[in-house]
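Known limitations

Structure tokens in this collection are predictions and should be treated as such. Users comparing against experimental data should check residue numbering before alignment. To illustrate the layout, the record for Eukaryotic translation initiation factor 4E is reproduced below. The input appears on top and the generated tokens appear beneath it.
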Amino acid sequence: MAVVERGELGEPDGHYLQYSWNFFVFNYSLGLEWEQQMQKVTTFNTVERFWSMMLHTLPPSDIANGTDLYVFKDGIQPMWEDPKNENGGRWLINVPSLNEVNRYWEELLMLIVGNAWETEEESEEICGAVFQPRTRGVRLSLWTSNWQNKESIMRIGRRIKEVLEYPDRLFYQTVEEQRNLPKGQDFAGGIYSL
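Generated tokens:
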């Protein structure tokens, strides 16, 4: 099955995005391996397919605890061990209210798939976005490929705060910081913050 259907004259049926993206759902099940719990739902590379995915997915406010959503560039697996992620990190967005979670998720996805960055360097830095509902609160994150590219990482963080109109501090956590956290511990800081 083709990702993008073609019209009669072979013209694209839609407006192409700069990158193709994969949408994954992770359902926590005791006793299963991580890979068995992660399911790729669809791939999209047009604006129309993106909105189709959004309209046919439960809003984040209706997603059960233990079910995570991932939207990553095609070719990048939503795991720290992927070569594009292993030297990177993530901007952490703690959602202060469930009233905001749907808007924050939609705005974050439009930012990454719409490639609304100041420079190509920032665009290339982006790996994907994650939604994680937990009993202690909802967290969104935007994963990047190289934590040492501070200037670009900080521009990305400022853009997130601007687009989401996010009032609280954002923290950037490296993969190494993530790996060193005890299981279940919340993260309250990071190598960078805004």
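For this record: The beta strands are 16-27, 38-46, 67-73, 89-95, 126-134, 137-144, 171-174, 192-193. Residues 1-11 have pLDDT under 50 and may be disordered. Please report discrepancies through the issue tracker.
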